[in-house]
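Re: the request from the purification team.
They wanted to know what the chain is likely to look like in 3D before they choose a buffer screen. I agreed to run a prediction and write the result into the notebook, where they can find it.
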Amino acid sequence: MRIKWLLLLILAALIVGLLVNQKNQNKVLENNESTAIKTPVSSTTAHDLDNAIEHNLATDPIAKKTKQKPTDVQLILEEIETRMFSNDPYVEIYSLQSSMSLCKDADELDSLFTFYQNYTHPKQQQSIDVFKEKCQQQQSLYPNLISQDIKQPFKTIKPESRLGLLLEKMHKKFNRLTELERNELGTELLIEGIKAQNSTVLISSSFTYRYNRPMMSQLTHVLNSQDLNYVGQISQLAIAKLACQFQHGMACEPTSELMLLICAQQPNSCGLTFNQWYQQNTLPGMKNDVEIMLAHFQDNIH
């Protein structure tokens, strides 16, 4: 009997303890709720919430679908993030387009070789095949740049350098310039191309100096010669040699557009770099004049 009463007392004590504990918990909850109502959310907490929302939107597949599709120019800028020619995106795009122009038009590539003769020499065909492989590699690196119209990026992207401004002037105003202004622009492009160490701009300049008689006449004193054809030829060789020093010689490699042009005219030159071709096809006296002209161009860049 005493054991029974003892058990009843223990049970009653447990019940009372549970009730008291429950009451205390309710008070704690009430206090917490009151504190939560009276205490404003701190700025740090709000900032964290904003970050969490942004993170959720970024990772939410539904939210991703509502994001604006990148423009063609944005895609091109992503492709040229690793620069080869210039920190100026205008110059970079111009240079890449110039170096890949034959990749954009297979018919132009074929016509380059058929222009000089009615058939393609086996050595020429081999160079064409190697060049097309190079074009495929370029296509994988710059798919949007190659597929876009050549003028399209320049409608949005603005030049950020002196060289870029000159290239923009050449593209947009060349037809409205006088002959004197065109010659001055050609000279400025050469000087800025040397300063920027831009091989593509220099190769373009080399053809300008080869066939522009007024510009050639300005250089007759350098070689003490009035033979404009010879002065133009030496000028072109000197500028091309200079271009080979930049961008790891890409403008002068066997698959460069300069060497493809020489290959189209001289099948035995196919597969050569410019420097190899130069050593094999230039007489000692011409080499000396090329060095004189090269020194003249380098001395006038300052």
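For the purification team: The chain has 18 helices and no strands.
Please add any questions underneath this entry.
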